[in-house]
């Protein structure tokens, strides 16, 4: 049984594309039923439409509180029978009500080896810090910033004098492999959120 999955984006959507492609495999335990964006001009939305996927743009109305916006998002997901939600470059903070409701069924990818370098521009943060090893992380989402229980990580070694552009591009390639792997494990319940930790079967 494939788990009905939504992917939330705000921009380019290259991780969304990697997830969609993985889900096209007949044996993959998840199916993308919705690609939703908080930005009408997110480039990834157009790509998703071209694939024939259901898309939704949910822009924040003037004066709408975070809680009200997230309640609308939650209803949209529930109306479509969504079971799992993947954040893929979704640049809006989610309210604690939302993350609690979706606890264990809401995952995110971040371009650093968390808990190092949470927040924006993680690749640049790592590059500036002069670390020799960095990577990407998929984690369950909690109400903190990039702070939820870690599901899995991939690492790479920086080359001597490597530019930020080169590092970012190599990281993105790693992300495109890691995220589908993690979605597969979560959808197959090979890893679950139990007592605040990601537990593998
Ligand atoms: C990725 O680096 C992801 O880790 C971060 O935002 C970026 C989104 O890129 N959360 P894309 O939209 O998936 O191409």
Structural commentary:
The chain is an alpha/beta fold and 201 residues long. It has a single domain, classed as Formyl transferase, N-terminal domain (Rossmann fold), CATH 3.40.50. It contains 6 helices and 9 strands. It has a 7-stranded mixed β-sheet with strand order 3-2-1-4-5-6-7. The site of 5-O-phosphono-beta-D-ribofuranosylamine has 13 residues, from helix 1 and strand 5.
Helix vs. strand class = alpha/beta
User: What does the main sheet amount to?
Assistant: 7 strands, mixed
CATH uppermost class: Alpha Beta
Q: Could you tell me the strand content as a percent range?
A: 25-35%
Order of secondary-structure elements = EHEHEHEHEHEEHEE
CATH H-level superfamily: Formyl transferase, N-terminal domain
Q: Give, in spatial order, the strands making up the sheet with the most strands.
A: 3-2-1-4-5-6-7
pLDDT under 50 segments (min length 5)?
Answer: none
Instruction: Figure out the total of helices.
Output: 6
CATH architecture: 3-Layer(aba) Sandwich
Q: What does this entry show, briefly?
A:
Helices cover 35% and strands 25% of the residues. The longest helix has 24 residues, at 164-187. The protein has one domain (3-196): Formyl transferase, N-terminal domain (Rossmann fold).
């Amino acid at each position: 049984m494939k788990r009905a999955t939504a992917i939330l984006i705000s921009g380019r959507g290259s991780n969304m594309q990697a997830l969609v492609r993985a889900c096209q495999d007949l044996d993959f335990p998840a199916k993308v039923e919705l690609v939703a964006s908080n930005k009408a001009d997110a480039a990834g939305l157009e790509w998703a439409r071209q694939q024939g996927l259901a898309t939704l743009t949910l822009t924040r109305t003037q004066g709408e509180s975070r809680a009200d916006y997230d309640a609308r998002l939650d209803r949209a997901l529930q109306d479509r029978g969504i079971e799992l939600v993947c954040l893929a470059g979704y640049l809006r903070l989610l309210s604690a009500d939302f993350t609690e409701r979706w606890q264990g069924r809401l995952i995110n990818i971040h371009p650093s080896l968390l808990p190092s370098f949470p927040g924006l521009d993680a690749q640049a943060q790592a590059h500036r810090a002069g670390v020799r090893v960095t990577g990407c992380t998929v984690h369950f989402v909690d109400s903190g910033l990039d702070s939820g229980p870690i599901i899995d990580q991939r690492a790479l070694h920086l080359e001597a004098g490597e530019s930020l552009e080169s590092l970012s591009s190599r990281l993105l390639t790693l992300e495109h492999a890691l995220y589908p792997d993690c979605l597969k494990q979560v959808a197959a319940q090979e890893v679950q959120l139990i007592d605040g930790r990601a537990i593998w079967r």
